[in-house]
Amino acid sequence: MTNLNRRHFLRAAALGTGVLLLPSGLLRLRAQEDSKETPKKRKPALVVVYLRGGADALNVIVPFADKRYYELRPTIAIPDKGDGAVLPLDKQFGLHPALSGLLPWYEKKRLAPIVCVGSNHTTRSHFDAQDFMEYAAPGDRTVRSGWLNRMLEAGKSELDSSLRALAMQGLLPRSLRGDFPVLAVPDKKVLKDGELLELFDDLYGEDAKMEKREEDSVRDTGRETVETLKRYREIMAKPVSGERAEFPAGKLGDQLKDIAHVMRSDVGLEVACVDVGGWDDHVNEGGVEGNLATRLKTLGDALGAFATDIGERLDDTLVVCMTEFGRTARENGNNGTDHGHGGFMFLLGGKVEGGKVHGTWNGLKDDALYQKRDLAVTTDFRDVFNEVLCSHAGLTPKDGFFPGYSPKRVNGLFKA
After folding, report:
1. I want to staple 376 with a disulfide (CB 3.0 to 4.6 A). Which of 207, 211, 370, 382 is the partner?
2. What is the mean pLDDT of residues 290-303?
3. DSSP one-letter code for 273
4. Is 198 among the domain residues?
5. Mean pLDDT score of the chain
6. Which run of H or of E encompasses 159?
7. Per-residue pLDDT tens digits for 177-232
8. What angle do CA 344, 320, 348 make, to 5 degrees?
């Protein structure tokens, strides 16, 4: 391969236009043997599922006791009784019936829904809201390290596994970009065929010589990427002991099954991210049935299967499911909803105080809504992130971890 072709390939990979984005920052070479990659004391794990597009909070965690909900949504509201009725969580809220796969975990007090959570920024732009949330810096466009990468950097050690953090997609989400190296897992077909690994081997093998010194660091990054990908592929090729849960067919089910496989292999995985697109329901959102219900069915079944599959690991694993903002309280003329403000989160597993709905609810009257159209934000998402860091990951964020913001404690979200 010529230097020109090498340079073109490197540029394509780094920009994510190829099948793999190289790890964020230069990977530090690790010489641990496989037997040494597993930390002596297993650290808590965090799995972040991002629902991109602004999922409709009001039809996910349904305020069925509020009559105003049914006035605002005459065709897409979830009924409080009869066929397709809401799955009650308490006297005020319930889950969309398509989320039946999550109800048992709520009843076991392992699932904690949070209402009216989101950003204090006024944007209704998907791109801005997602960036602000992943960098945990609403309105600050100078921040370029994700909150999860900052968490990894703060808690790093010499015993870290090369598979400490994974993005189950070809491009790193912004939350994982920064100084700490993170592997973006390419498409399964690429891993199966081995074409990418062969190309990297040819490019970064011991006999490969690059003329420009500036390429040396990129070469080291590529070589370590090859080794990490090979390690990942070896792990996925070995069956884990014990029975597996039944995951729903499709991309999300496959991704969460693969994360569970790595976790059950006990190789030091601490953070994994999954993106789920398609939540921008301006048209034909539906109610009990429809586009939203179909996606929620897959989401609930996949999360439930993941919790079942990892077994006792759920005690030290937390799943955080979130979205960039909610949607309008009132349905639009196209059987859908438009970009809103306050949203929701699900926390599943770990030491979460499950079995109850968290967050402050002010109702759906016009004077309680944000700009008389959206759910207000009564819990800043950074406060939830801070609780995850402190109460789950065991980290105390330093001043400046959340740029320009001092987080408040969310009392009762985690067990003491």
Report:
1. 370
2. 98
3. E
4. yes
5. 88
6. none
7. 999 999 999 877 666 665 655 655 555 555 445 445 455 555 555 677 788 889 99
8. 95
Q: How confident is the model at residue 26 (pLDDT cuts 50, 70, 90)?
A: very low
How far, in Å, CA of 182 to CA of 167, rounded? 7
Number of helices (H) and strands (E) in the chain: give both, helices first. 11, 11
DSSP, residue by residue, 346-401: EEEETTB--SS-BS----SSGGGSBTTTB----EEHHHHHHHIIIIIS---PPTTS
Instruction: Classify residue 1: in a domain, yes or no.
Output: no
Strand partners, 167: 184, 273
Residue 92, exposed/middle/buried by CB under 10 A (0-12, 13-18, 19+)? Answer: middle
pTM of the model: 0.89
Provide the pLDDT for residue 36. 45
410 occurs within a structural domain: no
Domain of residue 188, residue span: 23-392
Token reading at 56: 């409709």
Q: One-letter amino acid identity for 149?
A: N
Question: In a 10 Å sphere around its CB, with 0-12 CB exposed, 13-18 middle and 19+ buried, how is residue 341 labelled?
Answer: buried
CA 316 from centre of chain: 17
Q: The domain spanning residue 212 has which CATH number?
A: 3.40.720
From residue 259, how far is each of 12, 77, 167, 382 by CA, in Å? 27, 34, 10, 25
Number of C-beta neighbours around residue 70 at 10 A: 15
Q: Is residue 18 pLDDT above 50, yes or no?
A: no
SS3 content of the chain, % helix, strand, coil (to 5): 35, 15, 50
Report how far apart, in Å, the C-alpha atoms of 73 and of each of 59, 63, 324, 334 are.
Answer: 10, 12, 22, 12
Q: For the beta carbon of residue 106, count every other beta carbon within 10 angstroms.
A: 22
Beta bridge partners of 87: 95
Q: Decide if 133 contacts 378 (C-beta within 8 A).
A: no
CB contact at 8 A, 134 and 141 = no
296 by DSSP, 3-state: which?
Answer: helix
Of the chain, the end-to-end C-alpha distance in Å amounts to 58
Residue 413 belongs to some domain of the structure: no
DSSP 341: S
Domain count, the chain: 1
Residue with tokens 């950097």, as numbered in its chain: 153
SS (H, E, C) 240-251: CCCCCCCCCCCH
Residue 211 is encoded by which pair of tokens?
């003329």
What whole-number distance in Å separates Cα of residue 13 and Cα of residue 368?
48
